[in-house]
Amino acid sequence: IIKLDKISKDYKLGKTVVTALKNISVTVRKGEFLAIVGPSGSGKSTTLNIIGCLEEPSSGTVTFDGKNLTGLSSNELADIRASKMGFIFQTFNLLPVLNIFENVEYPLHLRGMGKAERFERVTKVIKEVGLERFTKHKPAELSGGQRQRVAIARALVGSPDVILADEPTANLDMQTGEEILAQMKELNKTLGVTFIFSTHDQSIMDKAQRIIELRDGELRDGGLIK
Amino acid sequence: IIKLDKISKDYKLGKTVVTALKNISVTVRKGEFLAIVGPSGSGKSTTLNIIGCLEEPSSGTVTFDGKNLTGLSSNELADIRASKMGFIFQTFNLLPVLNIFENVEYPLHLRGMGKAERFERVTKVIKEVGLERFTKHKPAELSGGQRQRVAIARALVGSPDVILADEPTANLDMQTGEEILAQMKELNKTLGVTFIFSTHDQSIMDKAQRIIELRDGELRDGGLIK
Ligand SMILES: Nc1ncnc2c1ncn2[C@@H]1O[C@H](COP(=O)(O)OP(=O)(O)OP(=O)(O)O)[C@@H](O)[C@H]1O
Ligand SMILES: Nc1ncnc2c1ncn2[C@@H]1O[C@H](COP(=O)(O)OP(=O)(O)OP(=O)(O)O)[C@@H](O)[C@H]1O
Ligand SMILES: [Mg+2]
Ligand SMILES: [Mg+2]
After folding, report:
1. Span A4-38, pLDDT tens digits
2. Closest residue of A to B47, CA-based?
3. How much distance in Å is there from the Cα of B138 to the middle of ligand 3?
4. CB-closest option in A13, A91, A149 to B141
5. DSSP string, B56-85
């Protein structure tokens, strides 16, 4: 369970201040399949980054599993992220010098998982996103949607409790996107994995149990409940 | 008018060869509003890159305005691109050290256009994509969809004859995407600008006069005519 309480986020740009989020309060329950929607620039990625401890709010509190994250060191935050969360970035953030097997394996390496178990998990998730023929390719040797699927595989491989997915189907054709969403829905149903999407994909909105709407950094009508 | 005649494209990956395109032949007429569709990895971006002279085919001929492009020097190809084409990349390819005004202005600079005319054109197109409040931001200080719109603005600013758009709405919400597509349709109708899209967006397919379908690097049924 994740709680954002009166979160605001400002960016300084030279002498001006850009307000990305104004007074956002959201409670995410365990096992939710939640979609954050809104126009381009409305603050969806910023909200996801704050939930995922990748950015600190300018004011307000973030609570994760009852623990107040404000004022934790960046090492403590990194530990929580590594053990509890999987993040699919809007710009993928793959490591260009590693091939896709190594990219997907990376979070397991960081956790100190043994070689045999890493191999088994990575092979399985790469197959699930349809990239088994491409394990030796580096990110630059892949299509846009293939890179997106590597980012998805990397977020899923460690079986985290919470997956934060920023526009995970943006570069995928409808069929590939549907197959991957079905797998995510399945993980949510059978293992209770919490999914928080930032998206403009109607297909994800249709599958979500709850939709939260942002506009100009603010929640519209406290969000809509489906 | 652009003609691809029996185009194949292979990539070497260590000892293996990856075939991205097999024997593609396409004729694009002046003023067309054409969509290339197909699953992730089917060869859409590769086709667009070859049409836009950004990649050379492994075999086959590319003709542009009656001129055979095979064997032209990379300088001659760059000239054709700079004077005739606007390209919207799937990964945007913005210059990180320039702000968005400077990013959009860049192709006009390369052409030697005067300062006053550059300012007028850049201001106009930045307003058209809804980013007038963000001119001083650098790409890293923008949302994903805002970066995509900078890439779109940059392709449009020089009023080219042909625009190659690789998934131009992938990171945009429906409304923003529709507004931009309406402007592209307008340019096509009033100025006869040729648009070639690589896309999986149904909304672009609905607006296209003709749809070409790729699957595993090959044309399906010689493409479908709407
Ligand atoms: N440099 C490269 N080396 C090896 N293979 C490559 C390289 N670049 C692309 N490919 C392969 O060529 C195929 C076609 O790639 P392309 O980018 O054209 O696909 P696409 O249809 O645009 O896909 P998407 O919808 O995912 O963007 C893919 O299978 C990809 O892995
Ligand atoms: N480093 C930064 N400096 C200044 N402004 C920023 C910075 N990062 C983001 N912004 C601004 O904050 C606002 C919210 O950005 P955010 O990335 O959360 O939007 P979004 O809803 O994810 O948009 P999209 O759908 O286009 O991805 C945008 O207007 C953006 O320009
Ligand atoms: Mg975003
Ligand atoms: Mg592509």
Report:
1. 999 999 999 988 999 999 999 999 999 999 999 99
2. A143
3. 16
4. A13
5. --SEEEEEETTEE-TT--HHHHHHHHHHHE
